[in-house]
Amino acid sequence: MIGIVDETTAGREQSAWHLEIFEERLSLREVIRRRVFQEVAEHNARRSGPFRGLVQPSETERALNGPGRYEHRPVDPQRQYERAVEAFGRNGFIVLVDDRQVDDLDTQVDLRTGSEITFLRLVPLVGG
Predict the structure, then answer these.
(1) What is the rounded distance in angstroms from the CA atom of residue 78 to the CA atom of residue 2?
(2) Does the residue 29 lie in any domain?
């Protein structure tokens, strides 16, 4: 069982949750894929509430839906995974595995029971 923590530079976004990973070594790319596919599966099974995942809808999608408007729609896990990989590539978030930054998607990370993976979303500075 691996702990997943989402943070921004302002602090934790939500409480930690767990991801079942049985391998001792995986590429960061595969860790991200498993995380995204699990959160999409949970969202699609819940059938209510907005999607809260590693990557969120684009500004255009939010504008089309309007503020406060929400209709549950199934989320495509492959599309969300591709968006997560793109976000990582443009420094939308960094990943820490047991407090060690991993900066390449193909890096093999060592995982053990109790490992914690932190996804730190980087928020652009206003005016900078």
Answers:
(1) 22
(2) yes
Give domain status of residue 35, yes or no. yes
pTM reported for the whole predicted model: 0.84
Strands 116-121 and 2-8: parallel
Quote the number of domains for the chain: 1
Tens digit of pLDDT for each residue in 46-105? Answer: 888 888 889 875 554 444 445 555 577 789 999 999 999 999 999 999 999 999 999 999
Asked if 19 contacts 116 with a C-beta cutoff of 8 angstroms, the reply is no
Rg value, the chain, Cα: 15
Residue 126 falls inside a structural domain: no
Q: Report how far apart, in Å, the C-alpha atoms of 115 and of each of 16, 33, 47 are.
A: 12, 17, 30
Residue 33 counted as domain residue: yes
